[in-house]
Amino acid sequence: MSVSTLKSVVDRAFAERYGVPAINIVNDLTMEAVLAGAVEARSPVIVQTSVKTVKSIGSRVLFSMWESMTAGIDVPVVLHLDHCPDRAVITECLERGWNSVLFDASRLPVAENQRQTIEVVAEARTFGAHVEGEIESITGVEDGIGSDTASARQSLEISLRFIEETGVDVFAPAIGNAHGVYTREPVLDFRRVSDIVTAHPIPIALHGGSGLSPGQFAELIALGCAKVNISTALKITFMQSSLAYLKDAEARDKWDPPSLFGQVRSDIVALTRGLAEQFGSAGKA
């Protein structure tokens, strides 16, 4: 199985109506822990990198980590560039070896977004890679990209035209979801997912997954959300696990970094395994 394509992973999930965890990592420890959790759960997983992570670590180092950690892995794994409005970064990552990208031109007029997305899809195909597209910004700022102002939702006709003319492999509509921590329960537009999938069967990406209820996840996955993005939950787990360990270390005056790393790794492995079980992808490898 090893490294797989985005299309092969999400097409099966879409057909069988389960969700594949698409988890944003922030460093080598989180990448290894997410992969280990997927192996434990016997689940496919999409490892996501933000533009901020690519720039802070460097694409060469990140991809070297990926190659090393996925060598011999026996569950389907995908390396995905998340929410990237910068064409140069997309090209850099495709050339380096990422096999999936989200070209986020949602701040552009739809016609220009569509024109450039067609170009990105053509470029990605030359590398055997796949593309996620969107025409509306998902509310919330994630790693410096996005806005807290909700964007206008496009009509079903415009959404379908975008999907058909660009040839994207996954589509990410705005349905009342948001990046970051929800301050109140979101009001989700389940019908929008259903309408798109009914008119044009395509795997849907659910952004802003951290904080949704089990019932909301279950309904959206049943409707066709085959890629379920998780970023904030990993960041919270990483930071809170580290903080709890450091507070205890301070109280005991025992300072052992490998033990800290082991605790954080254990918590992220458990998070990944739990997400796979919740989304129905556990045992699908």
Automatic annotation (TrEMBL):
Its cofactor is Zn(2+). InterPro entries: Aldolase_TIM, Class_II_FBP_aldolase, FBA_II. Gene3D superfamilies: Aldolase class I. Pfam families: F_bP_aldolase. It comes from the Bacteria. SUPFAM superfamilies: Aldolase. This is Class II fructose-bisphosphate aldolase. It comes from Cryobacterium glucosi.
